[in-house]
Amino acid sequence: MSVETISILGCGWLGFPLAESFLNEGYIVKGSTTSKDKLPGFWKVGIKPYELHFNPEPAGDDLADFLDTDVLIINIPPKAGKLGDGFHPQQIQAVVNALRQSGAKLPYAIYVSSTSVYPDLNRDVVEDDVVTPDQAAAPAFVEAEQLILGLGNSTVLRFGGLLGYNRIPGRYVAGKKDLTTGSVPVNYIHRDDGIGVIRALINHPQPGQTFSVVSPEHPTREAVYRKNCDDFGYETPTFAEPSEPEPFKIISPEKLIKTIGYSFQYPDPLAFYYAP
User: Fold this and answer.
1) Is 109 part of any domain?
2) How far apart, in Å, are the Cα atoms of 145 and each of 36, 100, 156, 157, 226?
3) Are 11 and 30 contacting, i.e. CB atoms less than 8 angstroms apart?
4) Which structural domain range is residue 94 located in?
5) pLDDT tens digits for 181-232?
6) Which of 69, 184, 196, 269 has the highest CB neighbour number within 10 Å of its CB?
7) Which of 37, 31, 15, 82 is closest to 55 using CA atoms?
8) Poorest-confidence range of 101-115, 125-139, 210-224, 245-259?
9) Helical ranges in 7-84 per DSSP H
10) What is the CATH number of the domain that holds 106?
11) pLDDT score at 81
12) Residue 8 is inside which H or E element, if any?
């Protein structure tokens, strides 16, 4: 696949540094945001900026020009809590409709989904455990995945909890009391590895495939929180035994590792790089 232009729909905490990594390799990068205030920052680093909204229908800058690209990375938050579970699939349907109506050759599409699709099965979990919405803990994400996969030349990435840099899990629980989920294993991915996986797929596309993107090691929440609090001086939360065992899932990245040979920069969430 010859790639010159990459469009990132949702150029935020993950998308912006991803765009910068592509710019460093000489790609033309188009990035979208819903915030007009961010457009000058895009221009400054060399990203061609677009203000685009999907509410759920598209509005804003020249969508057809944005979608005229070799690779389209779709990374927009679902906002289900505010707008209902059906809103995000409607957004993705609008993206798919715009792609089909553009008249241009369909780009290779990568959709950033979430491991929240997996229910707590109290065991190791793989991609085939959730294929249809009725199997999912978050059916709307799977509906959106199916819409993207229906394009043909597309890949779904189910990201675990995306952390690193200023996103430090221990900070969010500092000082809390009697947490009962301390024994639950984490399913995290460092932002640098999230970027690395997307870059690897552009070099070795996997159309029609779905991958879980999580670090291969799964320490407990308590271990991660204590390490973060020790490292950064947060007040360590306290933990309590739950009245019943907490449900859990251990999400396996083996398919990703075996298929594209990806080697994680941060395989262990206890050793993630942070920059508070």
Assistant:
1) yes
2) 28, 16, 6, 9, 35
3) no
4) 5-164+188-216+249-266
5) 999 999 999 999 999 999 999 999 999 999 999 999 999 999 999 999 999 9
6) 269
7) 82
8) 101-115
9) 15-23, 39-45, 63-67, 80-83
10) 3.40.50.720
11) 67
12) strand 5-9
On whether the CB atoms of residues 66 and 82 are closer than 8 A, the answer is no
Split into its structural domains, the chain has a count of 1
In this structure, are residues 195 and 262 in contact, taking their beta carbons and an 8 Å threshold? no
Stated pTM of the model: 0.97
Position 94 in a domain: yes
Cβ atoms of 102 and 37 closer than 8 Å: no
| Dist. CA 67–CA 184, nearest whole Å | 41
Helices (H), 128-220: 139-149, 169-172, 191-203
* CA angle (182 as vertex; 181, 186 as ends), nearest 5: 85
Whole-angstrom distance, CA of residue 73 vs CA of residue 37: 22
In a domain? residue 157: yes
Q: Which residues of 89-107 are buried (b: 16+ CB within 10 A; e: fewer)?
A: bbbbbbbbebbeebeeeeb
Classify residue 226: in a domain, yes or no.
no
Query: Is the confidence at residue 83, as pLDDT, over 90?
Result: no
Backbone angles phi, psi at 86, to 5 degrees: -80, -10
Q: Which range has the worst mean pLDDT, 5-19, 89-103, 115-129?
A: 89-103
